[in-house]
Structure to design on (493 residues):
């Protein structure tokens, strides 16, 4: 069956969506970027701070809106290292207001560089929009949605457009408490990009690790209560309906089972023959019921910031087990998680450390039977700004060790070095960056150099390389044929 009509329709849909987003952006851009300048007379009102320039000329008025954030400011609300704890809206809360708009738009073209690549080209498009209504200082209502388009040519060509909900909830704010009911994106943990205590979020694997952490998570149904206790904060989350990870299309180059090559991510082909994988059927069916619960306590002191995590949840990323002859079934085992983490500023560096114990990590015995075993995840890292400038360097050492595991075909220990280097230049109109992941116990390499033009705010145009390489059981080795050069545009409003 030919995929050409479907692929053509999908590309047209993606193009139409992106054209619409650009029109909306340009239509309303002027109202977002205009400065209010007073030439003759300055009228000072309650919520205005007047600043004059050094020459005594016209000053710029900065509008400081009254805060409706009862849980304090700064880092207390930044649960995850990337600040993904959906920030409160910045509009005034003293009267009912409603806001509707485009939140994010993106388009990307990728050229696969490896001669063995199963796709020659990839196309990705993304739009996200929301409406936010705050009828009162204590109440907030939000409804968000997104549309993603994917197109890959080659041996297993496919095209698809997916719609999904975003953060959509009802929120109540009290003096020292905040309660949120609805779909939410909640990322816990201390380490950058690989937070080990991240046990209540839903992963987005549609583009594997090509995107930043906040773009690799989806909103999932949750009931959340956050309360302040002095310098500390208690965060309680219940997941009333389990939402598994968002997976790529089974024909995508990013799917964790490659039926064309007969490989399964993390498993040596000598343990499960390629022929058995090529002919297998794959079931992604998730279990019914709730996703579990979690509690996290964070506290800021004069010495360090620290956090404690307790959770009983299902992992959202599936583990595929052999289910008889010619079939693989996704498993989402429940696990108790106990975690501790801390961060401290010393010697001009930010030091981070995190450790978690998981009671049930999925593994496979040599006879292909499925079981679970305890494991320890640990990590530490440093972040610095050389010369106290805008450049940022983050380096982390992360490891996973299984505890008293039976004879298995999975890796018993994994050690890696990862990090990010960001270098703005030309008055921050450009940014050069490098993300990297290097295996220490196995040959495993992922490199992502990128250069982006930032001078057209809020738009970015970027050119990136994604390079994979490694041994049979490593992530880099599994995706080594998917290395690519990507040209894209993105904007967040």
């Amino acid at each position: 069956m030919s995929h050409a009509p479907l692929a053509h329709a999908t590309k047209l849909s993606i193009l139409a969506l992106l054209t619409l987003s650009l029109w909306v952006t340009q239509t309303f851009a002027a109202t977002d970027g205009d400065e209010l300048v007073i030439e003759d007379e300055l009228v000072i009102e309650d919520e205005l701070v007047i600043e004059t320039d050094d020459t005594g000329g016209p000053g710029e008025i900065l509008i400081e809106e009254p805060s409706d954030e009862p849980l304090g400011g700064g880092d207390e609300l930044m649960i995850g290292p990337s600040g993904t704890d959906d920030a409160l809206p910045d509009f005034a809360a003293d009267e009912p207001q409603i806001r509707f708009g485009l939140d994010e738009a993106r388009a990307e073209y990728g050229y696969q560089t490896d001669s063995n690549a199963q796709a020659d080209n990839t196309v990705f498009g993304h739009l996200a929009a929301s409406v936010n209504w705050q009828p009162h200082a204590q109440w907030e209502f939000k409804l968000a949605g997104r549309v993603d388009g994917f197109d890959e040519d080659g041996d297993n060509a496919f095209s698809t457009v997916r719609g999904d909900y975003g953060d959509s909830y009802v929120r109540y704010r009290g003096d020292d408490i905040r309660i949120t009911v609805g779909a939410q994106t909640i990322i816990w943990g201390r380490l950058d990009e690989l937070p080990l205590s991240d046990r209540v979020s839903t992963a987005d694997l549609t583009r594997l690790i090509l995107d930043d952490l906040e773009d690799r998570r989806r909103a999932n149904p949750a009931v959340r209560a956050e309360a302040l206790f002095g310098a500390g904060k208690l965060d309680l989350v219940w997941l009333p309906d389990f939402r598994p990870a968002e997976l790529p299309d089974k024909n995508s180059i990013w799917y964790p089972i490659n039926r064309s090559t007969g490989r399964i991510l993390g498993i040596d082909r000598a343990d499960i023959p390629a022929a058995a994988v090529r002919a297998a059927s794959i079931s992604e069916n998730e279990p019914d019921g709730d996703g579990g619960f979690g509690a996290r306590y964070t506290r800021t002191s004069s010495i360090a910031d620290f956090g404690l995590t307790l959770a009983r949840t299902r992992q959202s990323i599936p583990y595929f087990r052999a289910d008889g002859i010619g079939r693989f079934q996704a498993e989402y085992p429940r696990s108790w998680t106990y975690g501790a983490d801390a961060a401290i500023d010393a010697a001009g560096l930010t030091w981070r450390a995190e450790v978690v114990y998981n009671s049930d990590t999925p593994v496979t015995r040599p006879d292909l039977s499925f079981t679970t075993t305890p494991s320890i995840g640990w990590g530490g890292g440093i972040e610095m700004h050389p010369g106290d400038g805008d450049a940022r360097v983050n380096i982390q050492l992360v490891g996973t060790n299984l505890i008293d595991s039976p004879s298995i075909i999975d890796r018993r220990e994994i050690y890696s070095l990862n990090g990010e280097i960001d270098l703005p230049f030309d008055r921050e109109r450009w940014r050069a960056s490098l993300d990297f992941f290097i295996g220490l116990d196995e040959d495993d390499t992922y490199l992502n150099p990128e250069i982006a033009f930032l001078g057209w705010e809020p738009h970015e145009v970027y050119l990136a390389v994604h390079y994979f390489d490694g041994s049979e059981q490593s992530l880099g080795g599994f995706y080594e044929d998917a290395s690519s050069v990507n040209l894209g545009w993105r904007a967040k409003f």
About this structure: Residues 1-92 have pLDDT under 50 and may be disordered. The chain is about 10% helix and 50% strand. The radius of gyration is 24 Å.
